[in-house]
Amino acid sequence: MLPHQVQWWNLPNYIKLLVGGFGCGKTYIGALRTIFLSCINAPYPVQYISPSYKLAKKTIIPTLFEIMDRNGMRFEYNRTDMRFHAKDWGGNIWIGSGDDPDSLRGPNLAAIGIDEPFIQDKMVFDIAMSRVRHPKAAHREIFLTGTPESLNWGYEVAMNDEGRYDIGVVRGDTRTNIHLPKEYAESMLSGYTPEMVDAYIKGEFVNLSTGRVYKPFNRDKHTAIRTDLRDMPLEIVAGIDFNVDYLTAVIALNGKSFIHFFDEVRLSNSNTYELADELKKRYPGIRVFPDPTGSARKTSATKTDHQILKDHGFTVISKRQVLPKDRVNAVNALLIKDALSVENCPHLVADFEREVWRNGEPDQTTDKARTHASSAAGYLINYLFPVLKTEAWSIRR
Q1: What residues does each domain of the chain span?
Q2: CB neighbour class for 169 (10 Å; exposed up to 12, middle 13-18, buried from 19)
Q3: Are the C-beta atoms of 256 and 345 separated by less than 8 Å?
Q4: pLDDT digits over 296-341, tens only?
């Protein structure tokens, strides 16, 4: 184990919290702790709660498989119920999802682990507190592992100013993980704001959800007429945000190591057909990176937004889901590197300068003219220039 993992493992408290940066080994040590708790509490179940089942399939489940396989442990996994059964000691591990807190209610448990509690509803924690109560459990415990992104209920629990909890807190720094490639932390340091470094590398509590969304943007630095790019064979790409007001596309030159936005389409009280027609007139057949929600068919339409774009000859590229903070972080990383420039896109510039946080999300209500252009740019940038942040299970520890 890494030093901060050992320190966390040995905490004597009922609630153990490991606050750390991306890649500091939270998922690995959480999986290891889950296996350990299932052993000493067998046959009584231990639950591990991920923010969603989709995320669990990418993080905790493959990590549990990797640890058990590597150590020759005999186990069964029920994919329908998402439950592990360790044959060697009769232990049981249940995987839960925090996106529906009510689904977590149920029988008594021996212990619970919560992954990324700071992006989950406090009800998840409250329910966990009420469920760890099995009378025959050898060791009842709640542990939490996560990266701090806001001063929410998780911060209040960690600080424990009112002394309500028996909690121990350990911080883990990404740079102390000797199992990571050297360039992992270096790439984050070069593309993060100071606040992001504190949260995503040092594991310190920072409120990343206040003030301007795109703090690194500077009109003098990031707006420029790039005549030097006009004769270069660069790919034209577009990001798209679907809204009735305002339906927006921002068009850019993809320089592989930089992005230059040079045009935008903004339609009011319109539809995807009209946007696709206009975009086809200007830039036929290009790759477009739209809002992932456009892949869903609406009851009032016979085709999805993505299908309409495909029918107009565009190559549509989209992730299944893009969290607002992921696309914001990707945009800010390019701004910090001065790898993003803008010309002839007044609405995109206005978004970069005026968009603010509201309740932990980019404010889309105070000024309804804002966020559309920056969202469109974010979908594009998050795909082409994603911020390296995932604590990949294959890296281990």
Answers
A1: 3-200, 219-384
A2: middle
A3: no
A4: 555 345 789 999 999 999 999 988 888 888 899 899 999 999 999 9
Is the backbone peptide bond immediately before 48 cis, with ω within 30 degrees of 0?
A: no
- Reading the block at residue 218, the tokens are 């500077």
Q: Give the position of tokens 């052993």.
A: 39
CATH architecture of 219-384: 2-Layer Sandwich (3.30)
Apex 12 CA angle, 8 and 18, nearest 5? 25
Pairwise CA distance, residues 37 & 14, whole Å = 13
pLDDT tens, residue by residue, 136-168: 999 999 999 998 876 778 888 988 878 899 999
Amino acid identity of 254?
N
Q: Which DSSP string corresponds to 84-107?
A: EEETTTTEEEEEEETTSGGGG--S
Q: Measure the CA–CA gap between 35 and 333, rounded to whole angstroms.
A: 37
Contact 350, 370 (CB under 8 A): yes
Q: Would you call 122 helix, strand, or coil by DSSP?
A: helix
CB 49 within 8 A of CB 114: yes
Q: Is the pTM of this model over 0.70?
A: no
Cβ-count burial of 34 within 10 angstroms (0-12 exposed, 13-18 middle, 19+ buried)?
buried
Question: Residue 179 — φ and ψ, nearest 5°?
Answer: -85, -10
Which numeric CATH code is attached to 3-200? 3.40.50.300
H or E stretch covering 362: strand 361-362
**300-330: buried (b, 16+ CB within 10 Å) or exposed (e) per residue?**
eeeebbbbbbeebebebebeeebebbbbbbb
Phi/psi for 256 (5° steps) reads 70, -50
Are 342 and 334 spatial neighbours (Cβ–Cβ below 8 Å)?
no
Cross-strand bridge partners of residue 47: 94, 112
List Cβ<8 Å contacts ≥24 apart for 184-188. Answer: 184/23, 184/388, 184/395, 185/23, 187/388, 188/22, 188/387, 188/388, 188/389
Task: Say how far apart CA 222 and CA 199 lie, in whole Å.
Answer: 25
